[in-house]
TrEMBL record:
Protein name: glucan endo-1,3-beta-D-glucosidase
Biological process annotations from GO: carbohydrate metabolic process
Signal peptide stretch: 1-25
Lineage summary: Eukaryota, Viridiplantae, Streptophyta, Embryophyta, Tracheophyta
Pfam families: Glyco_hydro_17
Similarity section: Belongs to the glycosyl hydrolase 17 family.
Length: 337
């Protein structure tokens, strides 16, 4: 009896440790862009993620130095090809295999790839129609090297919605509905999330007459929008639920969302941009997504990536340059992590 009991005890301990480490990982990540000429080395950046206890990282291209620095880091990685490469994957299984063999296979034993994003905001757009076939070919390339279970998905911009207000009116733009339905079919089969970029900042700063700062910053203590039986206290939930309603309309209610980008700039367009607003939005967003789903998906906690790690001086304007949590010298823009 005794050895059996000991064995049971050990398996219980192992299980408990696994549960604890699961509870430990937050479904929160930060995007790491490289549009700056003064950014720290990838190794320093990955160490900064680790010191800051940021578990998930999103990168926009398979930069070899970044992938090298990610080895053994334990971070969960979202990675995508360059948008320009997607058409070749759609047209050629060999091209998809080559991308996977070059950028994923050499790292697969010590880098934890969780999401492969085929296209960042290419739908709507001229490249968009390539996405479903490119996703299938990349998925096939992964499974032929024994990699199953990685989420192969795409990232949509808010402009993919032809209607978004009230959230129940959410619908994909008619010219892309077929493409999105093909993508949703793949996602449903693989149980992978559809990724979306959600920026209450841009909605609010372009229409401050109709959208209040409190609603955009999660500061409202009463419902701002009532939509049938759903009550919205913040714009983020309303924007996400417009996507959920759009998925319901094409009969893919079961496809879940993950947020590939969200954030708030600290500089560039006062009074909408400020360090205080950026800090408020990001703090409130973090508390919100760690504890709450949206009104249409109340029990589903979405994975979310903040945009972004650093202020990047080569982006096109002051707002775009100032979404970072950190200055290029790695000093925090405001206390957060
Ligand atoms: C797939 O994506 C979901 C939602 O973002 C995530 O929770 C899950 O861990 C991912 N699965 C794998 C195998 O990486
Ligand atoms: C939002 O709430 C924070 C406190 O959580 C406060 O510092 C900030 O001034 C508020 N901003 C607005 C616009 O309501």
């Amino acid at each position: 009896m005794a050895p059996k009991f000991a064995q049971l005890f050990v398996s219980a301990l192992v299980l408990l440790t696994q549960l604890l480490s699961l509870a430990d990982a937050r479904n929160i990540g930060v995007c790491y862009g490289l549009n700056g000429n003064n950014l720290p080395s990838p190794t320093d950046v990955i160490n900064l993620y680790k010191r800051s206890q940021i578990d998930n990282i999103r990168i926009y291209e398979p930069y070899p130095e970044v992938l090298q620095a990610l080895r053994g880091s334990g971070l969960s990685v979202a990675i995508g090809p360059r948008n320009e490469d997607i058409a070749s994957f759609a047209g050629s299984q060999d091209a998809a295999n080559a991308w996977v063999n070059k950028n994923i296979v050499p790292y697969k034993n010590d880098v934890s790839f969780k999401w492969i994003t085929i296209g960042n905001e290419v739908i709507p757009g001229p490249l968009g129609a390539n996405v479903p076939a490119a996703m299938n070919n990349i998925r096939y390339a992964l499974s032929s090297v024994g990699l199953t279970g990685i989420n192969v998905t795409t990232v949509l911009a808010a402009t993919a919605l032809g209607a978004s207000f009230p959230p129940s009116a959410g619908a994909f733009a008619s010219d892309i509905t077929g493409t999105i339905a093909s993508i949703a079919g793949i996602l449903a089969q693989e149980n992978a999330p559809l990724m979306v970029n959600v920026y209450p900042y841009f909605a609010y700063s372009s229409d401050p007459i109709h959208i209040s700062a409190e609603y955009a910053l999660f500061n409202s203590t009463s419902a701002v929008v009532t939509d049938g039986s759903f009550q919205y206290f913040n714009l983020f939930d309303a924007m996400c639920d417009a996507f959920n309603a759009a998925l319901e309309k094409i009969n893919f209610a079961g496809v879940k969302l993950a947020v590939a980008e969200t954030g708030w700039p600290s500089v560039g367009n006062p009074p909408f941009t400020s360090v205080a607003n950026a800090q408020t939005y990001n703090k409130n967003l973090m508390n919100h997504v760690l504890q709450n789903g949206t009104p249409r998906r109340p029990s589903y906690l979405m994975d979310a990536f903040f945009f972004e790690m650093f202020n990047e001086n080569l982006k096109e304007n002051a707002v775009e340059q100032n979404f970072g949590f950190f200055f290029p010298n790695m000093a925090p823009v405001y206390p957060f992590w």
